[in-house]
């Protein structure tokens, strides 16, 4: 029989899993990841919530799921900063990322970085915040996400589906040819230069 893990250690592990997930995790899944029993999870989450008080992060709980989020005390300043960022034009970097995702279809960040030749993390985050892209799990690799256009983006462009994009077949063919000439290695361990 396994020895019980101390509550504070469970709280640290729960925080790490919640941070790594970047969104909500069901209580059931979190309990299996730790691993612990329901009562132990409840105590660990109470401990984590207490430890986070007064910081910029808060633990959000429902009956079925938990998540880390910006604390109410810090939410005002974060909202102001996001508003300033969203008031700016998406720029050339944003247009490049949107074009890749629209023409290539659901794409990983690594693929977007590869095609652009620079790191696209902040641009993707900006486009997600604007509701132009959505992020979903990658069924082929649980370690990464797929980015895809939202219905709002298609509506904004005045199209019902991506096949109606200008020169869709030609551009898709050119992107595919580019990818085949220099095969994309999604997990080659190298990093791309630049920022955006």
List keywords for this structure.
mainly alpha; 196 residues; three-stranded antiparallel beta sheet; Arc Repressor Mutant, subunit A; two-stranded antiparallel sheet
As a whole number of angstroms, the C-alpha radius of gyration is 20 Å
SS content category: mainly alpha
| CATH class membership of the largest domain | Mainly Alpha
Q: What fold name goes in the CATH topology slot of the largest domain?
A: Arc Repressor Mutant, subunit A
Report the strand count.
5
Shape assignment: elongated
Q: State the order of secondary-structure elements, H for helix, E for strand.
A: HEHHEEHHHHEEHH
Helix and strand topology:
Elements: H1 7-21, E1 25-26, H2 27-33, H3 38-52, E2 57-61, E3 65-70, H4 72-87, H5 91-104, H6 109-116, H7 121-129, E4 133-137, E5 145-149, H8 151-157, H9 168-181
Antiparallel strand pairs: 1-3, 2-3, 4-5
Put the structure in a nutshell.
The longest helix has 16 residues, at 72-87. Helices cover 54% and strands 12% of the residues. The model is unreliable at 187-195 (pLDDT under 50).
């Amino acid at each position: 029989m396994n020895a019980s893990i101390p509550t504070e250690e469970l709280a640290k592990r729960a925080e790490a899993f919640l941070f790594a997930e970047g969104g909500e995790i069901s209580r059931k899944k979190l309990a299996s990841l730790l691993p612990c029993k329901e009562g132990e999870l409840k105590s660990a989450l109470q401990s984590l919530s207490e430890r986070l008080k007064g910081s910029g992060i808060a633990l959000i709980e429902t009956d079925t799921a938990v998540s880390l989020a910006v604390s109410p005390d810090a939410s005002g300043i974060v909202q102001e900063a996001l508003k300033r960022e969203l008031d700016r034009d998406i720029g050339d970097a944003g247009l490049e990322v949107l074009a890749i995702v629209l023409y290539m279809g659901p794409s990983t960040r690594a693929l977007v970085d590869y095609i652009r030749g620079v790191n696209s993390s902040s641009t993707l985050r900006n486009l997600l915040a604007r509701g132009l892209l959505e992020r979903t799990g990658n069924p082929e690799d649980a370690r990464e996400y797929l980015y895809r256009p939202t219905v709002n983006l298609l509506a904004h462009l005045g199209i019902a589906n991506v096949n109606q994009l200008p020169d869709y077949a030609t551009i898709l063919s050119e992107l595919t040819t580019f990818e085949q000439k220099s095969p994309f290695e999604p997990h080659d361990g190298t990093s791309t230069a630049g920022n955006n």
